[in-house]
Q: What sequence folds into this?
């Protein structure tokens, strides 16, 4: 595997605001790489620099062997973008949206027609070929955005929160399609706030917060390293903390009090589970650790607005 | 300036979408100038009598025609572009493809030229029905070239305004305080001979005045050497407006 995207000390400033603060990462050819983080973490800004619609403030960013730059048409030619917002052309039909976009990439008309037929099949929108955009559901619009991103047969696809606002059926269909693309060798770059999405799709992720990368690794590795295997959530008043921590801390590898809940993290749940049964606590949830635990632990639990 | 042949693709996009708007835009760009022609031409014409040996309508048509071109091109790059940029996010999609920001903006200006020329052509047809013709076929062709220049000029000027506009209301300053008054300073409805000399000088450098002068020459067949100066004014204003319009839009589009 070779790196297809390399960023070194990459920064982006908007006036006095630092949106991306000296991050470095490498994305390998053919993998699915995820940027996770709360709102305003700098995910979207980072990928905008990758697909050359936002200039860098400092650092280096090499995409497919070329320096990322706002006027780098060669990079844009190889990139498919699934934007966060639905930016379909509402003056045009489904078919016209794809045809007009194909022309932007210099795809000849006859070739474009073939590709559009294939893509509409791929995203299951054949029946909507001549519909106007406002006649589509949100899920259909998102699928059309995927088809549009694929019209130039891109080497890498950038998906910025591709399933925001979708019902579970639509979301799973989009995950299916993205996995299919990955199987065909396309490099996927994803931003998301949904931990399940990251676990479903990503080979490797970084967690971003306030413009910086906090950690990097495979989802399972990160869970293992940061949290452990299992989590016990005990809803109990705070004055009991000291007693419980004394009783349970030797079985857990960490604990945390958040609001009405005391969390215990552990690698081996057996003993903890037995002890919990022994203590007979009423409001207890015992479950496997997830990426969400990692995310909350690293980026904090307070609201980010 | 990162311009390329991809301007055409942006023009093509507008053409594809246009078929849904053809009827309303035809009606709008036909009737507004038509009202000017009818009310001024017939109403005023009755009072002013002959102008240089010809009916007032012959004076009026060249000016109204060229101002129809200028208004159509302006509106396209004001409201049309603003909707595409802010409401439809079309420019965001465009600049993620090999189409550059410059291509996208120039493509919209090219589209505004086309829209302006449609308006101008419709006006010409109406004028012919009213018995007013360009003097010859070559002069009619010259008129089309002039329309194209006027379209680029006013499309580009409108782009500068759009690049600064926070919302739709902002356009009122430009349309009400600049575009509409300009009609009265540019010799569309009456000659500027009786303006004090400082007003004449001011009017001479307004973008519409030289265009109206050339248009009138094309209709009357009376060419003078002053028209070269008029053409140069249009040309220089146009180069500057095109450059500033594109740069200013790019600044807004790319953050």
A:
């Amino acid at each position: 595997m070779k790196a297809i995207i390399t960023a070194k000390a990459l920064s982006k400033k908007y006036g006095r605001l630092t949106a991306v603060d000296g991050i470095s990462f490498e994305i390998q050819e053919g993998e699915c790489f995820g940027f996770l983080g709360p709102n305003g973490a700098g995910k979207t800004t980072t990928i905008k620099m990758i697909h050359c619609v936002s200039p860098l403030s400092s650092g280096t960013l090499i995409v497919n062997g070329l320096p990322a730059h706002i006027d780098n048409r060669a990079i844009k030619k190889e990139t498919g973008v699934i934007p966060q917002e639905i930016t379909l052309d509402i003056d045009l039909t489904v078919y016209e949206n794809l045809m007009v976009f194909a022309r932007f990439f210099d795809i000849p008309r006859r070739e474009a027609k073939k590709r559009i037929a294939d893509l509409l099949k791929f995203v299951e929108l054949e029946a909507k070929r001549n519909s106007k955009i406002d006649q589509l559901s949100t899920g259909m619009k998102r699928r059309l955005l995927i088809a549009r991103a694929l019209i130039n047969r891109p080497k890498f696809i950038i998906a910025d929160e591709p399933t925001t606002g979708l019902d579970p059926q639509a979301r799973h269909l989009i995950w299916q399609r993205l996995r299919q693309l990955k199987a065909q060798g396309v490099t996927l770059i994803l931003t998301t706030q949904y931990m399940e999405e990251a676990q479903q799709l990503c080979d490797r992720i970084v967690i971003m917060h306030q413009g910086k990368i906090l950690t990097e690794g495979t989802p399972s590795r990160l869970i293992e390293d940061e949290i452990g295997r299992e989590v016990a959530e005990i809803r109990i008043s705070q004055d009991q903390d000291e007693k419980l921590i004394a009783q349970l801390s030797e079985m857990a590898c960490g604990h945390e009090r958040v609001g009405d809940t005391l969390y215990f993290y552990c690698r081996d749940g057996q003993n903890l589970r037995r002890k919990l049964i022994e203590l007979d606590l009423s409001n207890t949830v015992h479950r496997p650790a997830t990426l969400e635990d990692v995310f909350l632990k690293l980026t904090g639990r307070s609201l980010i607005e | 300036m990162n311009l390329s042949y991809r301007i055409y693709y942006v023009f093509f996009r507008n053409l594809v979408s246009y078929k849904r708007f053809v009827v309303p835009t035809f009606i709008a760009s036909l009737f507004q100038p038509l009202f000017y022609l009818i009310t001024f031409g017939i109403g005023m014409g009755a009072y002013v009598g002959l102008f240089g040996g010809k009916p007032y309508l012959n004076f009026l048509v060249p000016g109204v025609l060229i101002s129809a071109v200028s208004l159509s091109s302006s509106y396209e790059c004001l409201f049309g572009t603003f909707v595409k940029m802010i409401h439809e996010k079309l420019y965001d999609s465009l600049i993620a493809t090999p189409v550059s920001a410059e291509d996208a903006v120039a493509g919209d200006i090219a589209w505004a030229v086309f829209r302006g020329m449609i308006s101008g052509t419709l006006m010409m047809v109406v004028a012919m029905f009213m018995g007013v013709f360009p003097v010859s076929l070559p002069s009619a062709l010259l008129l089309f070239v002039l329309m194209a220049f006027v379209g680029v000029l006013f499309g580009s000027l409108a782009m500068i305004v759009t690049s600064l506009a926070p919302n739709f209301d902002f356009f009122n300053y430009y349309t009400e305080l600049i575009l509409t008054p300009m009609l009265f300073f540019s010799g569309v409805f009456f000659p500027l001979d009786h303006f004090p000399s400082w007003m004449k000088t001011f009017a001479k450098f307004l973008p519409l005045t030289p265009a109206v002068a050339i248009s009138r020459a094309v209709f009357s067949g009376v060419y003078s050497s002053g028209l070269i100066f008029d053409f140069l004014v249009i040309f220089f204003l146009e180069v500057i407006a095109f450059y500033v319009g594109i740069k200013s839009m790019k600044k807004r589009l790319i953050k």
User: Anything to note?
Assistant: The interface with chain B takes residues 14, 51, 53-55, 70-71, 73, 76-77, 79, 81, 83, 85, 87, 89-92, 96, 99-101, 103-106, 152 of chain A (CB under 8 Å). The CA atoms of residues 12 and 18 of chain A lie 6 Å apart.
